[in-house]
Amino acid sequence: MQPLHGCVTVGLPPEPVPGVAALERWADSGHDRDGLVGLDRNERLAPLPDWFIAQLRARLTSALASTYPGPAALYDELRASLRLPREALLVTPGTDAAIRAVYLAFVRPGDRVVRLDPTYAMVPVYSRMFEAREHAVGYDDELRLEVDALLAAVEPGVRLVMLANPNQPTGTAIDAVVLSELERRCADVGALLVLDEAYEAFALETALPLVERSDNVLILRSFSKAAGLAGLRVGFAAGAPAVVRALSNVRAAGEVNALALEAARLVVAHPEVVGDYVRLVEEGRRVLEERLDALGLEPLPSRTNFVNVRLPAEHAPAEVAARLRDRGYIVRGPFEHACLARCIRITLGPPALMASFCTELEDIVGAAA
Asked: Which of 12, 117, 291, 369 suits 248 as a labelling partner, its CA being 20 to 30 A distant?
């Protein structure tokens, strides 16, 4: 190593901690998406209402930008909306940050974590980062969860049960009876049950009532999906005060920006922003499923704003995805997990968008037949 400025010898930087050194992740530039319709990230695919943007713009003052964010007003509105005490809530920069806070606060090297397989990609990343020992519970070829295996996995020594419900990328949800049994087993063994409900608005079902009766349940919610605030990064966690206090202890100062707080306040005050979009997605789902059925393609059941489509043997998912991209649409696939073999995943949106997409898909599938 050459001396710096001719006088100081520069050594190697310190090695990262083992959990981080074992990871290999790539930065997202975003430039390769310019001009394409993203049907791969489960984002909101219809614009937010004009009145919503106008009100948000009116709140973007110089003072809002130049002073540190204060979440008190959002806490008051969440408390009233969810009927939970303030000490049971923590505003976070999306559910991803909340999951990371859970690992920071509760998971030590060697601790056992139960998760679904496949699931939200950041869960195994955090398990590796924090050197947890994972027990992954999978699905069969029809996307049926191995429920008995999941319940049996919650045994003494388990520290965390981290479940996306509905799950991504499968689109499936865990039955309320199973969740209640999981909650009981977690309480028995002293594990924390974390339920990531990022897609709750589309599932029309929540485990939030478990928070009121259990100290071992944490619910995570996002404003990214149905609310359409993915670019602002805001969500919240709801759970027992002791659990929320631990998460708060590892948070960054002012980690949710002021504009995101104001946008979330508008969503809470106007639930129709979410409700209207959910109805639009359901209309788009009907269009997509009808067109897929006419093509002889199999849409798998989904409780989310995306649908996995299983392609027949003559249509390779990678080839179909590449040709759709050439026509302006990005979809997810192929997948490495057996339960999603031969699938592409399509984010649902308004009926007109789904119809346009299906026209391109029909052309590709017909040409390949």
From this structure: 117
